[in-house]
Amino acid sequence: MKRIALLGSTGSIGRQTLEVARAFPERLRVEALAAGSNTALLEKQAEEFQPGLVHVGEKGPSLEEIATHPDVDLVMVATSGKAGLIPLLSAIRNRKLVALANKESLVIAGKLVMEEARAHNVEIRPVDSEHSAIWQCLQGEKENEVEEIGLTASGGPFKDTSQEELAKVTPVEALNHPTWKMGRKVTVDSANLMNKGMEVIEAHWLFGAPFDKIKVVIHPGSIVHSMVKFSDGSIKAQLGEPDMRLPIQYSLSYPERWENAGLPQLDFASLSSLVFDPVDLDRFPCLRIAVEAGRAGSTYPAVLSAADEVAVDLFLSGKIGFIDIARLLHDVIEQHHQISEPTLEEILEADAWAREIAQGWSK
Amino acid sequence: MKRIALLGSTGSIGRQTLEVARAFPERLRVEALAAGSNTALLEKQAEEFQPGLVHVGEKGPSLEEIATHPDVDLVMVATSGKAGLIPLLSAIRNRKLVALANKESLVIAGKLVMEEARAHNVEIRPVDSEHSAIWQCLQGEKENEVEEIGLTASGGPFKDTSQEELAKVTPVEALNHPTWKMGRKVTVDSANLMNKGMEVIEAHWLFGAPFDKIKVVIHPGSIVHSMVKFSDGSIKAQLGEPDMRLPIQYSLSYPERWENAGLPQLDFASLSSLVFDPVDLDRFPCLRIAVEAGRAGSTYPAVLSAADEVAVDLFLSGKIGFIDIARLLHDVIEQHHQISEPTLEEILEADAWAREIAQGWSK
Predict the structure, then answer these.
(1) B41 lies in a domain?
(2) Among A36, A45, A39, A42, which residue's Cα sits nearest to residue A18?
């Protein structure tokens, strides 16, 4: 029986994690639940799963207490934004199994997180479908024989939208993703490929891959979740229906795989046609900006991530346009004075600085 | 330094094996060469690679002597037809590393071969691109978590040919495979999907998979070489340009992967479109006949394989038509009185019987 602490239980990943837990009552015990504000749903969840520890808003044990509690074997970090970082580090330092759905913690503090993970011999299990795919493709393979990582991107709702039309995109249109059902922030990030840029940074840290070796390729069907090319030229890919419960479950069941009749099954014969296209960085500058921030390192990715949270809020509340998000990110990064080898405090300061600048941004 | 014995060095797989050996003079030493009749080419090969042991026709050490020689670490069985079986068994019994390009030995005597391999703790390394793909997908995974194997088939030159037109197919047309350059026998077998049927039997034995769990899917591009679906619904696929040197090399380099600039490289961005179609068993009855023979077991697959060798010869020499191959196979199998749990001798007797009946076959 694996005892799980679920941080961010009322979000999209949190709710799907509980669906997986519900399917395996003899293998998974939900020992702790934590959520930010959706008290009504959290109460329902607590009633069903009867966790020993419950945190909501400011009440109950802190996220760090939950992430380090002796009754917890595995911490699923499914909070959004930078709130996942501190409990993630606590879990690592306490040698918990860690499943990571929160990409921001690797984007803003990947170096620190991976150093702690190495120091404490903790393997971080990715939950993002792309990173889960890469992780699966790497099973039984050697890290030093990885030649390239092929990160697939659905291309989002505006894959074929012209530059002129992108300027007129509304929040409702941006929130209508063709293949994945996700939270609002990540859905907008997927529409302008900012999400893919953050995933490149995430892959860089998770798999120790140089940025040059991480390639983004558009794959509208979201069936091939990512690929790895090895030194002999052989490529492995992982495929499945676009359903987050599969990578969530794998992060919990690893190194085993569990049959789950509740998951949609993909048939070989129904694969039909898998299409791949190059990515157009002119129409999707957020991807370029994000990868450049990742490559520059230091406090740049933290600034990128924080400014993007503000930018997406401004876009969703109608204060800036869709293509202004990239402009805002570009301008905030331009103004930033990086701190190399930043401490956690310096990262959080850069984050706060970026939010302030982003809030005051105007075209 | 791995010291290799190459049985069947003048055939298509043999020549490509030597191309791989040529690329890695510090890792691979060709210790033995054996060929059936192409003396001129064998002499050239011997001059270049200076093997300690050379067998041609009836001259030199026997194939069994080569396969069991103390100077040999790995035996590549690339002979065609049933000639590979005896040296394969000798190599296994002497605990050599074995790379198997000869599918007939598993088709006709899979049970015996795998029993010997288990008894001597020898892992048979597949060389067929499909089986290499499956083997690669299985790395780091558990055999009891395999849900299904998806064996891809290019569909051959007659993928879209009508039943009426199939009756008129000439040897020249059948020898013109759209994606793979191979020997004549296997090219004809690929054109009527007999080869895929034999590969199903081969996969059954190599990976211990029940026939129900092995699915054939048409994939005209020959980029996805095969797939494995696991118990949680996750699918892994192996991709690469259709070039036998990659699976050959992997069978030699395993568990390592070696960079080889001489191999064509597949780019993620150039994948473009991967198409999959269901297989039409009405137009390709050989696939059904082969799988049924595999399922029936005993001496049926040996009869199938032997009768097919004769049938392809008859077709190539213009004595029977393309669609007569399936009729011949059907008739010979119908007449066969199976011997269950056959010994090697009984298998070879069934083989001889089938050749005789096949030779005398008429519509």
Answers:
(1) yes
(2) A45
